């Protein structure tokens, strides 16, 4: 019976609505158009994670602030429905606040006025980084806040203020820390895009801090499929061919020849999405790099349908949110796919919404106990000294076309 009520409700709510395939962009479609809140519809389920509730915030009403404009519509829906899914699933029986969804297109004064009027205890959001400081400074001191982005310029100068985000830079740092346990001499591969520039810089800085050496780099054009020339140059294969040509000219005869790659590379880090990685990895193998360990972030695993075969990614090690790669919640995933839910394209944001709700009753305890780890849908969650929620990724390796969970020692 576990999650049975949740799945029934979600199948009715999600399957019975056409909002996922229309152009509507309001955030209050869950039978809540009048008061924006979510009513209690099911009995609490048993929690899988037991923790003392002696030290927790008293939260009876939560306002969720998400963008309501068309550009962010699918992102907001994925996060919102992750929150609602966890609310219905109710993993913490003693915690069942009322939910109020508010679009952030209105001026800050109006948003805060609505929050005051509704007697909200805690705010989840906003998602846009630029709004965090404005809303934080306008909120009364007795209202807590879990921002869904991070602004490191904000110091923790008030109680019950936390920040939580899924940043590619944080993933890159974890990938680097994982990879350097295997080897210190890296070949770095990344796209020549703004995203690639940001991530590659994070890899360089982190790798230097860890004492590693970046032996070579490849910056590839994401609009091209053939990266052979860049790979051969980075692996010094062109030099091997040039030496063969010199010897052949010197001897004046044909030679039996097999080119070699450079032997001073110990690991490869690839910053790419799944489609790009599936082009790059076979070309690396063709050019004699088949025995080098290859690491990447969650961007190489883009499909919520874990049944898809990904043989081109064989051997690739990557970190990801456990909900995205896990076998659990099969029926929920099927509902999401069958209804063309935005979570199919943004599975990590759906998991992000789940964690944003589930972490609320534990925030005070986590703030007081920095070593505490909360198992979440996006990773093992903990609070750092700046009250930023950090997450430890789970690690996977592609074997026989499937993403297989690695243990903590590999």
- Which architecture name of the largest domain does CATH use? 3-Layer(aba) Sandwich
Q: What spatial order of strands do you see in the largest sheet?
A: 1-3-2-4-5-6-14-13-12
Distance between the termini: 35 Å
**Beta fraction:** 15-25%
SSE layout and pairing:
Elements: H1 4-15, E1 37-38, E2 61-66, H2 73-89, E3 98-103, H3 108-117, E4 122-124, H4 129-138, E5 144-147, E6 161-164, H5 168-179, E7 185-191, H6 194-209, E8 213-220, H7 228-234, H8 237-251, E9 267-270, H9 274-286, E10 294-296, E11 317-320, H10 322-325, H11 330-338, H12 347-358, H13 363-368, E12 374-375, E13 380-383, E14 388-392, E15 394-399, E16 402-405
Helix pairs in contact: 1-11, 2-12, 3-4, 5-6
Concise overview:
With 410 residues, the chain is of the alpha/beta class. It has helices at residues 4-15, 73-89, 108-117, 129-138, 168-179, 194-209, 228-234, 237-251, 274-286, 322-325, 330-338, 347-358, 363-368, and strands at 37-38, 61-66, 98-103, 122-124, 144-147, 161-164, 185-191, 213-220, 267-270, 294-296, 317-320, 374-375, 380-383, 388-392, 394-399, 402-405. A nine-stranded mixed sheet has the order 1-3-2-4-5-6-14-13-12. A seven-stranded mixed sheet has the order 8-7-9-10-11-15-16, sandwiched between helices.
How would you explain this protein's 3D organization?
The chain is α/β, with parallel strands linked by helices and 410 residues long. The chain folds into 2 domains: 4-166 and 326-392, 3-Layer(aba) Sandwich (Rossmann fold); 169-320, Response regulator (Rossmann fold, 3-Layer(aba) Sandwich), CATH 3.40.50. 35% of the residues lie in helices and 18% in strands. It contains 13 helices and 16 strands. A 9-stranded mixed β-sheet has the order 1-3-2-4-5-6-14-13-12. Strands 8-7-9-10-11-15-16 form a 7-stranded mixed β-sheet, sandwiched between helices. The model is unreliable at 12-49 (pLDDT under 50).
């Amino acid at each position: 019976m576990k999650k049975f009520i949740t799945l029934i409700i979600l199948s009715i709510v999600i399957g019975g609505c056409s909002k996922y395939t229309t152009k509507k962009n309001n955030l209050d479609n869950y039978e809540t158009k009048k008061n924006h809140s979510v009513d209690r519809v099911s009995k609490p389920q048993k929690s899988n994670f037991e923790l003392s509730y002696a030290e927790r915030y008293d939260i009876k009403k939560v306002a969720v602030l998400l963008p309501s404009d068309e550009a962010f519509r699918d992102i907001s829906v994925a996060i919102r429905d992750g929150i609602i899914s966890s609310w219905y699933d109710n993993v913490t029986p003693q915690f069942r606040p009322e939910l109020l969804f508010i679009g952030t297109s209105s001026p800050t004064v109006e948003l805060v006025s609505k929050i005051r009027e509704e007697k909200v205890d805690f705010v989840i959001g906003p998602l846009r980084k630029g709004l965090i400081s404005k809303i934080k400074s306008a909120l009364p001191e007795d209202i807590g806040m879990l921002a869904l982005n991070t602004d490191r310029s904000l110091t923790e100068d008030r109680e019950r203020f936390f920040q939580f985000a899924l940043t590619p830079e944080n993933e890159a740092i974890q990938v680097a820390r994982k990879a350097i346990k295997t080897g210190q001499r890296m070949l770095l591969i990344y796209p020549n895009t703004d995203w690639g520039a940001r991530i590659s810089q994070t890899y360089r800085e982190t790798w230097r801090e860890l004492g590693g050496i970046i032996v070579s780099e490849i910056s590839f054009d994401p609009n091209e499929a053939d990266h052979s020339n860049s790979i051969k140059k980075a692996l010094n294969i062109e030099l091997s061919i040039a030496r063969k040509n010199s010897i052949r000219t010197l001897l004046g005869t044909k030679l039996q020849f097999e080119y070699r790659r450079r032997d001073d590379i110990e690991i490869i880090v690839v910053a790419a999405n799944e489609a790009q990685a599936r082009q790059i990895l076979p070309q690396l193998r063709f050019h004699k790099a088949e025995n080098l360990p290859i690491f990447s972030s969650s961007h190489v695993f883009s499909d919520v349908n874990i049944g898809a075969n990904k043989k081109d990614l064989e051997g690739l090690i990557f970190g990801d949110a456990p909900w995205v790669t896990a076998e659990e919640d099969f029926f929920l995933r099927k509902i999401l796919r069958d209804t063309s839910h935005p979570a199919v394209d943004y599975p990590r944001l759906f998991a992000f919404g789940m964690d944003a709700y589930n972490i609320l009753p534990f925030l005070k305890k986590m703030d007081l106990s920095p070593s505490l780890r909360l198992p979440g849908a996006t990773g093992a969650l903990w609070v750092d000294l700046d009250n930023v929620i950090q997450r430890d990724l789970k690690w996977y390796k592609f074997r026989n076309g499937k993403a297989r969970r690695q243990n903590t020692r590999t």
